[in-house]
Amino acid sequence: MKTLTLAAITTALFAAGITAAQAQQPPYPQGYVGGDAIFWELDPDGRADSRDGTGLRLNGGLKFNDYFAVEGHLGGGGSDGGVELDSLAGLYAKGILPVSREFRLYGLAGMTDVDFDVDSESGFSYGAGAEFDVAPNLSLGADYMRYLDEDQYDFDAASVGVRYRF
Question: Which of 82, 88, 105, 157 qualifies as a cystine partner to 40, CB 3.0-4.6 A?
Fold first, then answer.
């Protein structure tokens, strides 16, 4: 009888643990949207006349699990000395490293189309960032992206912003 009671209690505790663990897991896929201030720099190779500006970027994505998402960026704005960022649009694979329940590091890799008033280019992009949850569905984040790495120039941007998960 003691064995049967012990087995029943163990099974009940195990089932309760599984249910509690499942309740803490967010449903996947999980969508998110956000807005960032971007601080960009257009740096011609071999010359000291870099250009920089401040613009806005919208981002959104779909998180498939705790470690992988697909993210898109749309942005623009800012000018310096005759160079204006008309638009940027990109699609990226996002690898996520959960450091804690509230804090994540991530890396991005994909393609971006950048349109300046003086030139337009597309190319491979990559970057890294971090997010920190400030509420159950709200996080603050920052990242640094190398949007273009061309023969004539590099185009980089740092950003800070907010993301909402739904």
Answer: 157
Among 113, 60, 74, 70, residue whose Cα is nearest residue 92:
70
Q: Is the pTM of this model over 0.85?
A: no
First to last CA, the chain: 49
Total residues found in the chain within this entry? 166
Res. 1: pLDDT tops 60 = no
d(CA 55, CA 75): 7
- 45-71, pLDDT tens digit by residue? 766 678 889 999 999 999 999 999 999
3-state helix/strand/coil string of the chain: CHHHHHHHHHHHHHHHHHHHHHHHCCCCCEEEEEEEEEEEEEEECCCCCCEEEEEEEEEEEEECCCCEEEEEEEEECCEECCEEEEEEEEEEEEEEEECCCCEEEEEEEEEEEEEECCCEEEEEEEEEEEEEEEECCEEEEEEEEEEEECCCEEEEEEEEEEEEEC
